[in-house]
Amino acid sequence: QVASLAADIQKKVQDHPCYSEEAHHHFARMHVAVAPACNIQCNYCNRKYDCSNESRPGVVSEVLNPAQAIKKTLAVAAAIPQMSVLGIAGPGDALANPARTFEVFSELQKRAPDIKLCLSTNGLMLPQYVEQIAAANVDHVTITINCIDPDVGAQIYPWIFWNHRRIMGREAAEILIAQQQKGLEMLVARGILVKVNSVMIPGINDEHLKEVSRVVRAKGAFLHNVMPLISEAEHGTHFGLTGQRGPTSEELQALQDDCAGEMNMMRHCRQCRADAVGMLGEDRGSDFTMDKVE
Ligand code: CLF
Ligand code: SF4
């Protein structure tokens, strides 16, 4: 049984460029920017740009409706044979736009069943959607988990939108953390591969991320991706404006090394845009804007 589980995981990661270092030399991914809304505020985000859960802030993606997204995906799949994965990663949060996100997934499942489906989320709504994620045949989910301690969280998340109202500060972080951890457990129980993204914010969660790594690994996360905070002032993020710096590459690598004792670390992330197309590190999005696809 252990062997068949290993074979199953192997099958799920072997052509996913983010989950397998080896696969990223041979397979491409694309994102469709169908999810404009978000239900939380991160201090490293500027809503005008892409969700920094997965993507590099500073560039505005062309928001597509589901029909356009499907058309674009089919066009890219026809043009780039290595394209194996379709991800929804913003520009807001995929699960704050559930109707749009699941329409794309279910239509693609019917029309292009060979394309693997991938979802990235801040996790706030995850427990409510695990059933639907499993039903849509989404094999890969990324949760951005920056902390498991609400006192740390209060320095990263000023508010969340929850049960029709805005909740601030520590209480907000507490709810978000609980939802993320519950969502992680539910996905693992379903056999869905979970990658955890963490944004490394020096002086706020850098030391704490080692503990995060231990906890998510114990709960069955498959991969941990520690990404550097990008906080150029011109992006207009809270951290950018308050002078919070990002880590140096040495600091990032040292933390990744520390976490690596605990679990599989992703080290080839390129912090893609919410509308990226192509091999990791390559962005052919401008070849497939809607005016060219339609
Ligand atoms: Fe996209 Fe993310 Fe899926 Fe990959 S990206 S939703 S898991 S298909 Fe990959 Fe890009 Fe890093 Fe993301 S390199 S930002 S980890
Ligand atoms: Fe921005 Fe993403 Fe955070 Fe929402 S989850 S506030 S879009 S970084």
UniProtKB/TrEMBL annotation:
Pathway: Cofactor biosynthesis; Fe-Mo cofactor biosynthesis. Residues 24-273 form the Radical SAM core domain. Keywords: 4Fe-4S, Iron, Iron-sulfur, Lyase, Metal-binding, Nitrogen fixation, S-adenosyl-L-methionine. Its cofactor is [4Fe-4S] cluster. Involved in the biosynthesis of the iron-molybdenum cofactor (FeMo-co or M-cluster) found in the dinitrogenase enzyme of the nitrogenase complex in nitrogen-fixing microorganisms. NifB catalyzes the crucial step of radical SAM-dependent carbide insertion that occurs concomitant with the insertion of a 9th sulfur and the rearrangement/coupling of two [4Fe-4S] clusters into a [8Fe-9S-C] cluster, the precursor to the M-cluster. Belongs to the radical SAM superfamily. NifB family. This is FeMo cofactor biosynthesis protein NifB. The lineage of its organism: Bacteria, Pseudomonadati, Pseudomonadota, Betaproteobacteria, Rhodocyclales. The gene is nifB.
